[in-house]
Design brief:
Number of helices of chain B: 0
Largest sheet of chain A: 7 strands, mixed
Mean pLDDT of chain B: 93
Helix content of chain A: under 10%
Low-confidence stretches of chain B: none
Mean pLDDT of chain A: 95
Number of helices of chain A: 0
Oligomer: heterodimer
Strand content of chain A: over 45%
Number of strands of chain B: 11
Radius of gyration of chain B: 13 Å
Order of helices and strands of chain B: EEEEEEEEEEE
Shape of chain B: globular
Distance between the termini of chain A: 35 Å
Low-confidence stretches of chain A: none
Shape of chain A: globular
Order of helices and strands of chain A: EEEEEEEEEEE
Structural class of chain A: mainly beta
Helix content of chain B: under 10%
């Protein structure tokens, strides 16, 4: 079955540590996205990539980094510069320009120890 | 900046009734509006899209309306079932340029009581 796989489901970060969230898709989608979801707030865009080897900052990129070396993969690193990283992180993809719906992964819950 | 409001954080409804969820926006009309369903601990799942020039869309027990005068979209679930209990998100794309332009509402948590 085609879809988006996020791992791990739960992740814990220690003070000063960088952690990486994995996102893989087998939908042959050109565009991939990372969102952050906090209780009582709408989804907020962290980074997006419309093509391999290219990505752009979203609304809340500070303290995060990404790479897009392969079409299928879009990992997100939460760096130590992100002072409030506890949230539910969602990866999504679509076919790119003109797409009218997003396909989401099942999310990663990141918590700070 | 554009704002989007889902004006109920939670909605409780009895099984068999019609659930109606509201999404309001400010300023000019979006190119299209989407509705997603999200279950606890899971990612959202796309349900329906309605464009600026459309007044109504249906899919099985779901119906979405778009009123550009009221700047509002209504999402209806007829003959609601306990399995419909979830959080429903609306999202707007004002430019039609792509998903990176989407603005999401905070969601309405629907509980269907048997």
């Amino acid at each position: 079955d085609g879809g988006i796989t996020q791992s791990p489901k739960y992740l814990f970060r220690k003070e000063g540590q960088n952690v990486t969230l994995s996102c893989e898709q087998n939908l042959n989608h050109d565009a991939m996205y990372w969102y952050r979801q906090d209780p009582g707030q709408g989804l907020r865009l962290i980074y997006y990539s419309q093509i391999v080897n290219d990505f752009q900052k979203g609304d809340i990129a500070e303290g995060y980094s990404v790479s897009r070396e392969k079409k299928e993969s879009f990992p997100l690193t939460v760096t130590s510069a992100q002072k409030n990283p506890t949230a539910f992180y969602l990866c999504a993809s679509d076919r790119g320009q003109g797409a009218e719906k997003l396909f989401f992964g099942s999310g990663t819950q990141l918590s700070v120890l | 900046s554009q704002k989007i409001e889902q004006n109920s954080e939670a909605l409780n409804i009895q099984e068999g009734k019609t659930a109606t969820l509201t999404c309001n926006y400010t300023n000019y009309s979006p190119a299209y509006l989407q509705w997603y369903r999200q279950d606890p601990g899971r990612g959202p799942v796309f349900l329906l899209l309605i464009r600026e020039n459309e007044k109504e869309k249906r899919k099985e027990r779901l119906k979405v309306t778009f009123d550009t005068t009221l700047k509002q979209s209504l999402f209806h679930i007829t003959a609601s079932q306990p399995a419909d209990s979830a959080t429903y998100l609306c999202a707007l794309d004002y430019s039609g340029a792509g998903s990176y332009q989407l603005t999401f509402g905070k969601g309405t948590k629907l509980s269907v009581i048997p």
